[in-house]
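Hi Y.,

Following your request, here is the sequence exactly as I used it, all 193 residues.
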Amino acid sequence: MPKEKKVKFKMEAEDLKRMSDEEFKWMLRSYRVMDIFWNPKRKIKKIPLKERMRVVDYGCGIGRYTLPIAKLVGPEGKIFAVDICPPAIKHVKEMAVKENLKNVEAILAEKYDTGIQESSIDLVLLIDTFHMIDDRDALFHEIHRMLKKDGLLFMDPGHMKMSQARGIVEHTNLFTITESLGNNMLVSPEFTS
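Below is the corresponding structure, written out as tokens. Let me know if you'd prefer a different format.
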């Protein structure tokens, strides 16, 4: 049986758009105001979550989805909050401690690699992040690597047209769109035998 070829992605630092501390503070304030009118729990109701799930919030930002989902998956579940922005990771860690959530692990990603164990994740969230990704190929390979065979990717393309996002996902040859939910997609990984 031939060995599976591992693909490494080389990227320069400028490939990733890291947020400054000031930009992060502005984002934190703006989301606090926005959450009054558009509570993230509305979107969470659309995500197929179950207790004990292992979830990745890729591009977690301030943890708008991370922290409520940590409560939903329960103490036997786990959520990995992944971001390239050090202030975001610091904030999520502080909020998890404040809310006594022991099932949150915040990961400061270098490039697109999360360091999360292969085939160990039930669900990856990619919410309002996709439009900021330069190397979508590297992102999709990393998500595919993390997901279990029956895992799912829940995607909201954010500031990108849904038709464009659908085309990109379909063109990867790594995923199949299993369901479109308004401005959201449920996507399943494909595996060759």
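The beta strands are 54-58, 78-83, 104-108, 121-127, 147-156, 175-181, 184-189.

Thanks again,
Q.
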